[in-house]
Each structure stands twice: as structure tokens, then as C-alpha cells.
Amino acid sequence: MFTERTGLIIWVNDVKAARNLDKYGSLHYISKKMHYAVLYVPASRAEEITRNLLRLPYVKSIERSYRNEIKTEYNSNMPDKTRFYTL
């Protein structure tokens, strides 16, 4: 149903030219102040798209996002102390 996607942080020289990155994947965010863009691409084609993006004249460097590898389910081994502080 949903394809596995990975995020790419693309550092650019020209923010206006960064709008053209939309044809390579799903353009999520462009920072005008820090000159980077966040692009989501299918994980199966990430290497191929990265090689194509590095050929563009306005792309400085590309970093892969590790957001999908971070654990997002948390559990607490500490007992719940809220019952002691009720009125």
C-alpha cells in the first residue's frame, strides 16, 4: 500500500533553483535561511536519485536522514507516581 521512503537533506546554493527538486521526489521543506531542502524519495531508488542530484549545479551536498531508523515507541520502567499527588 505505502512504499518505503527515505529522506534526503539537500544543501543548495540557490533556493529558487531548489524548487526544481520536486520532480525527483516529494519535496517536503525548503529553508531559505539555511539553504537546504528536505526531499522524500522511494528507498529502492535513493542511491540512483542521489547520484542524479549531485550532478545538478546548485546542489552542494546530500545527507541521508536517519529519522526512520530512530526508535519512536517508548516504554517506562519507572512506576507511575501520579496517584500520590492527587488531591
Automatic annotation (TrEMBL):
A Pfam family this chain is assigned to: DUF2129
Keywords: Cytoplasm
UniProt name for this protein: YlbG family protein
Organism: Paenibacillus chartarius
